[in-house]
Amino acid sequence: MEDEALAGIADRLYAGPLEDFIASRAAAAKDAAGQDKELAAGVRALPKPSVAAWAVNMLARQRPDVLTGLAGLGARMRTAQGSLDAAALRELGRERRTLLAAAVDTARAVAREQGRAISDAMATDVEETLRALTADEGAASAVISGRLLKVLSADGVNAVDLDGAVALPAMLPAVASPAPAPQPAPGTGAKKRTTAARASQPKPAKPRLEAVRQTPRPVSPPALERAKAALAQAQAEEAETARLAAELQDKAEEARTAISALQQETAGLRERLKAAEEELDRARKQLSATSAEAKQAARAADKAGRTAMLAQERVLRLGS
Asked: Averaged over 227-244, what is the pLDDT?
């Protein structure tokens, strides 16, 4: 079985609609069985992702720039933690909150484009997974792969648990690009230039796990320093959250004051409306009574006119 062939099939499956995953996987396995039994078995073993993981995969496929930005922010946060830079951690914490909120909104929009709505609970899972991306390089690689299977979580101190979290874990992409090879100094001999040129040549891609094993890891600060860095970040986030809570409380108090004023104004308008309705009712009654009196007066005037006419005729007859 060729890993590239399996990875290509996996990428197509995890980029498709979630409701079609099972049927698409069966069809892909059937197609592969005619050529490679081992490849077909590998396809059938690809797990179906959770809804939140699918939403993150859609974000990786449709808007990779969002995840790249979060991964870059995570690298800067780890650098600040390593140097115990509390001020930088506070600023980066605020930036992360902004980027995470925007990323979750983008994930909702991408999911809607695929015909599926993301609930608030699932959006929380998506945010937790993206937060883990910023906290751990391995989690970033799993998320960016677009083959995530379940929600990730980070505590800020320990490495993110990736066991069973991503399909084909041995073929995860590298998150950070290697640093460019240094240019030879002026006057360097031909042999050194040739060596530098060979060093600058791109190396064949390696499976993620092998690359991690062969790449020396930077020396981590002592556990106490890591804990202090995590504490500083938590305190910075707590202070920022408290500030935001105070602002929201002020806005809530302003809203309550506005509501009270509107309620008083509404009560006054209701009283004015009630008085106007009562005045209208009285005017209607008066109009009805006046109309009745006018009709009665008109009948009386008509009767008096006929009486006067008869009297005039009688006078004329007697005079003749």
From this structure: 70
Dist. CA 208–CA 252, nearest whole Å: 50
C-alpha dihedral (200, 201, 202, 204), degrees to nearest 10: -130
Residue by residue, DSSP assigns 179-193 as: PPPPPPPTT--HHHH
Q: How big is the chain, counted in residues?
A: 320
Mean pLDDT of the 197-202 span:
42
Domains of the chain by residue range:
3-175+222-238
Give tens-digit pLDDT for 98-153. 999 999 999 999 999 999 999 999 999 999 999 999 999 999 999 999 999 999 99
Rg, the chain, Cα only:
40
Least Cα distance to 178 among 199, 149, 207, 147 occurs for 199
Of 5, 7, 40, 3, residue with least CA distance to 25: 40
Tokens of 23: 């049927």
Report the share of the chain in percent with pLDDT over 90: 48
How far is it, in rounded angstroms, from Cα 116 to Cα 108?
A: 9
Indicate whether this model's pTM tops 0.85: no
User: Which two three-digit tokens encode residue 137?
Assistant: 């390089």
For residue 148, the cross-strand partners are 166
- The full 3-state SS of 100-127, as one line of letters, equals HHHHHHHHHHHHHHCCCCCCHHHHHHHH
- On whether the CB atoms of residues 138 and 119 are closer than 8 A, the answer is no
228 touches 157 (CB < 8 A): no
